[in-house]
Predict the 3D structure of the following.
Amino acid sequence: MTLPITFEDVRSAALRLADTAHRTPVLTSRTANARTGADLFFKCENLQRIGAFKFRGAYNALSRFSPEQRRRGVIAYSSGNHAQAIALSAQLLDMPAVIVMPEDAPAMKLAATRGYGAEVVLYDRYTESREEIGLRIASERGLTLVPPYDHADVMAGQGTCALELIEDVGALDVLVVCVGGGGLISGCATAAKHLLPGCMVVGVEPEAGNDVQRSLREGHIVHIPVPRTIADGAQTQHAGQLTFPVMQALVDDVVTVRDDQLVETMRFFAERMKLVVEPTGCLAAAAALDGALPVAGRRVGVIVSGGNIDMVRFAALVAGS
Amino acid sequence: MTLPITFEDVRSAALRLADTAHRTPVLTSRTANARTGADLFFKCENLQRIGAFKFRGAYNALSRFSPEQRRRGVIAYSSGNHAQAIALSAQLLDMPAVIVMPEDAPAMKLAATRGYGAEVVLYDRYTESREEIGLRIASERGLTLVPPYDHADVMAGQGTCALELIEDVGALDVLVVCVGGGGLISGCATAAKHLLPGCMVVGVEPEAGNDVQRSLREGHIVHIPVPRTIADGAQTQHAGQLTFPVMQALVDDVVTVRDDQLVETMRFFAERMKLVVEPTGCLAAAAALDGALPVAGRRVGVIVSGGNIDMVRFAALVAGS
């Protein structure tokens, strides 16, 4: 079966991103290693531009637009990191961008998105559909829609973070990646399984939103209600049409962690590693640090996917007891 | 005039530290560059072992002990990062360590110091002198005292952070370094002026504790009362006998910043760069970001010295308005 992306797509994406994305550092913690008995390598995408790995996929996708697409521009709907990733990428590539966001989105996120020069179109989450609004504007203005994960160029771009991690630290026994819609893990698994065929690739979902775990077990895409979890980047209700077959082919297992484990991991990152990591960004690390995944004696790559969290909320979570 | 340390001392320290200290990443922020018009390079010593540059000096000093000194052990008095730096270095070099700490020191710091295997001796800050206690125990047990900054091996070890920064990013027009007792800036200036004779080296003190600024202007070491500032690592009351002549020879200027600028910088690091930085660690960045120092059009190295701060306090500071 032919998968939607190949290792060559990830490698090409890496070339497109080379001068634009940060090559984020890989950090280690002897405390974490002592606690787990593993060698853990944290790939810090919270230190990526816009504070999350989403920049990699967005920029890769937009840089492949035709001249005509580029002239007309891009549209996306998101209240999260994808919005800022598209807005910044469009600014860098000098193309118009429209971002459809809920009118009750945090003022900081609206301001950041507008700060990158994007036009923000607000909608009422309770009475309007962002998909309908997005499609209407796209068709009226001839804009190209870039979805947050179910898109080959987005997946390939996101996979560059595993490529860099393996280039930097060498062989890994396990690669642990958070799972929302499956874009990040699809790209990362594509890179990892090509470079290190024996490396296990494990996804991590919030316990309350384990749709991908269930989908892989049941062999088809399972839809769930919006999960109640602090991991807002993993509140997706189903895997993508493109990401699912890649995960079926290349992901060895999916485990889950609870919200209290995410909070404990967030505090660990802040106290011991001096890093601000958002709840979704703690998923993979929580599984490695807190026993959901057996890692002792292994070399384990851990993707820390992002660090975008309101400071008041962050403060409340890390200072809580 | 012969200075207490030379570039060769810094280079030798770098060799001793090579397999033990983290080579900390140098991070950049386009937001910070856009705001200042400069190219800022942040050397992240908050990501160093024990969360601060102090590890470099402590480990360098202890690794130069004679076999007899090593057998008997080390003593230090500190309630801050130096305590943990000495305790961890002694553990790594397999020698006994005694740390004299105030009995009202935070429980977390006591636990961390004991966690590295050091013996903690408590004293009453209001009725006892830590110097007297330290000297008495040192003489009774034949321990070697390592002070936090006024020691050639400590200064040379701390200078390795500027050496690494310059190796990683190349030429700099300005290097900005926080100043407490002057150990870090002495070592850093020694490295910077050797590698880049045209590079300005600028120290930053809290406005309330500008003893080094005054000392350099007046040409002798000025003593001040304990300054009231949140930059607890820079609450020193006077420069050292060894650090002062190095600063006189190699530091071009000392500027000051206010506590509210430190808080604003701490929030900038957390929100925009996803880093936990302690108040003292924000001194150099605050001067570069907030206008105390003209940096537009220049390549500027900024030492981010540490990230050790209680999470409750950190939360209160970054979430405040």
